[in-house]
Each structure stands twice: as structure tokens, then as C-alpha cells.
Amino acid sequence: MDALLTVVQTINSYLSNYVLIILLIGTGLFFTIRTRFVQVRCFGEGVRRLFGTFSLKGGKQKSGMSSFQALATAIAAQVGTGNIVGACGAILVGGPGAIFWMWLIAFLGMATNYAEAVLAQKTRRVDPDGTVHGGPVYYIKTAFTGKFGTFLAGFFAVAIILALGFMGCMVQSNSIASTCNTAFGIPTWIMGLAIVVVGGFIFLGGISRIASVTEKLVPVMAIIYLVGGLAVIIANIGQLPAAFALIFECAFNPQASVGGVTFGIIAALSQGAKRGLFSNEAGMGSTPHAHALANVKNPHEQGVVAIIAVFVDTFVVVTITALVSIITLYVGDGALAQGMYEGIDKTNMAQIAFGELFGASGGAMFVAICLLFFAFSTIISWNLFAKLNVEYLFGKKAVPVFMVIALCFIFAGSLLSNDLVWELADMFNQLMVLPNAIALIALGGAVSMCAKTRGEKCEIVKKEDAQAE
Q1: Which of 10, 263, 291, 431 shows the greatest Cβ crowding within 10 Å of its Cβ?
Q2: H helices then E strands: how many in the chain?
Q3: What is the pLDDT of residue 59?
């Protein structure tokens, strides 16, 4: 296991330090420029559409999901352990400056997520019985015809099944089990079994049951975490300017030192990119599966809603986690400011931070409850995304087999140490980006047209078609 962990960590270091940074920032810049800053121009429109379709009881759709249900399913996938455990891990390894780079990745990722949603809507397939098929595999094959497109789509499908259906869900169940064990003393295997039973019931209900659960769960979990985080920040409001100053100092100072540890720009940028991807998933190719299922008039409508999903994930939830952690642990008399790193890791860091206001047991319980909501909702959405790709590769008959294997992985995740699981999840997440980003850029013209005309024109024009004209 140690040898495997070393190999995976080496692969991840190259992917996150070089390939991922170039692809994420490059793709985000590409769509930010080509869409003329759609994440800024159309942000208000996205908010209006969000509240215009907001409903805790959207009802069963004839096919697919309502726009809000699709958004809730996407946010359920995005808001998970990456927003608490992942953000804390980024700060511990890359320093507080990692949060700045997570913000930057998210700002650019808002444009990328717009592109993903637009193309997922544009290339989706609807069967005569109303069944909707959509996701990156369809726009990858649209971008690249022939064997190359088939290979890239297959590579993506395999990567997402491993990343989300198996390894990713292990990360989520591991975090739920470990935090609930710390907070309530519940044995990890009992928590794992409970997740399997409830998750299996929801999975069996198909898309309509998943949509019904996420549209109710996501708003509630976001409000609970927001209120708790703001309470801690307000109680330490005097430390807030110093927290922001520390974020920016560590993001740009090559020798920024906090609590006796020096954090460099490369470490901050690398952790910000890696954890930013795991948190908001923009460019990864996961959330387009949800946006493809939305029933909207044109792709632009769901594209602007997708922008809001990244904003909520990073600029709201991750920022709350970061500020609470930095204010209580890194600023002033905080434990990490004094170099007291022993006993603090990415799994319990948020619990300790919230414990500064709620007490040790109260902080542990609050984070455990929030993480239970966050991670469980992510498991629901990720299982759906992986299932859609299993169906694409092997047909509907393979889905029950996948479900059984996936539930076994979820249970196993609750029992295993999370270092190797996190590294494997990171590796497959990053591998997903490669075919997805290439296809997005190849179809950038359609995305640009859709953003400029606000959905009035959103045609995919291929080179041979343009030459014929």
C-alpha cells in the first residue's frame, strides 16, 4: 500500500503542478475571453433564473429534471468533502494563500462550467420514451468524430466511473464515517452501513428520486453551514482583515512563513488548483451530466445557472471554511500561528476551528452534521454521473452490477484510511480533465456564439461545414 501511495502521489504531483494548472487556467481564460466574461455579464441573469425556478417540490418531470433540480444535483456533486476537508488540506499543505488560487480557479471555472452546461444541453439525446442521455461523452464525440473521438469518450467514461463511482464515493463515505466517529462515537462500519442502505434506496428510485432529494437537501445544508460559519466569523470579526491579508500574502510571497512553516507560491498554486478542481469540479466533466437533464428553452439558460453553482461552491462555502479556519487557527493566538501542528490534520481541522465558538464537542458535532449532508449529497450525484457513463459503455444491463460494486466501495471507504483514497480520487479526477478540456476548447465557437446571443444562436459548426459554406 505504501508503494502504491508513493506512485500515485508522484503521478499526482506532475498532473497538479503542471498539466492541471495549465489546463484549468488555460481553459478558464479561453472561455472567459471568448464569452466576453460571461461569468460577469450574465451573473445577474443566472441569479434571476435560479430564484425564478427555485422550488423545494419541483415535482416529477416527464423526462429529465427541472432547471433548479439540475442545479441542485450539480451543487450536490460540487459541495462535498472538498469544501471542508479539501479546503483545510489545501491550507495545511499550501498555506492560507491556496485559498486565493482556489478563488481564481473558481472565477475562471465559472466560464468553463457555462461552456460545459451549454454543450451538454446542445449535444444531449432524447429517446422516444423521454429518456435523456447527456454529458461529456456526447460532446466529445461531437468534437472529434471517428476512432479518436470514440477513444477519448471511452477514456473519459472509464475515468469518471473510477473517479466518482468508486474512489470519489470512498472519499465521501470515509469523511462522513471519521467525522461522525469523532463527534458522536459512532463506529465507522455502522455509519458506512447506514450510508449504503439509504443511498441504495435513493439510487433505486432513479433520476426522479435523486432530483427530489437534492432539491430539498441542498438549500437546507447550505443555509445551516452558512449560518454556523457566519456566527464564528462575527464572533471574531476583529481578526477578519488579518485573515484576508494572510491569504494574499501567502499567495504571492515566495517565503511566507506562518507558525514556523514556510509556504511558497508553487505549493499554494498547486494545492489551490488541485483542491479547487475537487471542490467546484469546473472543467472536470462531472456536472454537465446534471445540466444535460434540465428542461430549458435553450442551452444558454442552463449555462448561466451553472455559473451560480461554481459561485456557491467556492465563493460561499469554501470561503466560509477558509475564513473560519484561518481566523481561529492562523491569526492571533491560533494554534497553527504558534506552530502547534500536532494533532491537527485536514480531517479534524474544521471541527477544531468551529470548536473555538461552539466548544470542542459542539464544533465536532456541527461539522460532522454538515459534512454528513455535504458528502452524502455528493455520493448521490456522483453515483448518478458514473451510472450514466456505465450505461453509455456497457448498456442498461450493466447498471445493476455497477450499483452493487459502487455500494461495496462506499462501505469500504468508511473503513479505510483516507490518504491513499484521496490520492486515487485526485488522480482519476485529474485524468478526467484531459479529454473534457480538449473537447470543450474544440467546440469553443458554439459556446462563444451562445454567450454572445444569449442562446438565440448556439450552433456547432464543424470545419468541413464551414469550408463548404
Answers
A1: 291
A2: 24, 4
A3: 56
